Amino acid sequence: MKQNIVLIGFMGSGKTTIGKDLAILKNCCFYDSDHELEKKLKTTIPEIFTSKGEAFFREEEVKVIEELSRINGCVIATGGGAILDKRNIEALRANGTLIYLKANYEHVYQNIQGKNDRPLLNTKDPLKTLKKLMKSRENIYEEACDYKVDVSNRSIPEIINNIKELFKYNDIFENETKS
Ligand code: S3P
Fold it and tell me: Which helix (H) or strand (E) holds 149?
């Protein structure tokens, strides 16, 4: 049986928020690949991009995801660009069910407003960059995932319920705390 629930999708699609809630529901551990990377390197993602560059970040991301993929029975939220490297997809799929949180650009733009922690969107025209990046990645998310869940204009409980539905016939939620 596949062991982890892995959330993939564009930055600002809610992977971390939804992942934490899912883990509470499933009564299991939660990991966020960006957070683990920051812990490991004792710095922030924007700082890594500035001082070492994106290529360095991507290699470190591969290492962190490789480690996280060895864990069982957890919810794992991945950085939005993790799917760009096939090694990450392979590692995550070997031991997990991949759920693509699909968001439209309005949803993403709203979620990232006022935040300054996405170095790839630190451009003159963030909305234009966002649209371009989303377009270039859409097919990769679609192809990498086992399931797709639309998150645009939907509440967190609605999204969680949708994910629960996906696992109706799977015992992945067997540890769910009764309400
Ligand atoms: C990135 C997404 C970010 C983070 C880094 C690069 C990307 O994670 O890994 O800034 O390439 O889309 P979130 O998806 O959690 O924002």
Answer: strand 147-150
Nearest to 108 by CA among 3, 15, 5: 15
Please give the DSSP secondary-structure letter assigned to residue 82. G
Counted residue by residue, the chain has a size of 179
Counting atoms of ligand 1 from 1, which one is nearest the CA of 84? 11
Q: How far apart are CA 35 and CA 21, in angstroms?
A: 16
Supply the pTM of this predicted model.
0.94
Which is nearest to 145 in space by CA: 15, 9, 3, 13? 9
Residue 22 has pLDDT above 70, yes or no: yes
Residue 166: count of CB within 10 angstroms of its CB: 17
Considering only CA atoms, which of 5, 18, 8 is closest in space to residue 100? Answer: 8
3-state secondary structure of 97: strand
What would the two tokens of residue 64 be? 């962190």
CB-defined site of ligand 1, < 6 Å = 11, 15, 34, 45, 79-81, 118-120
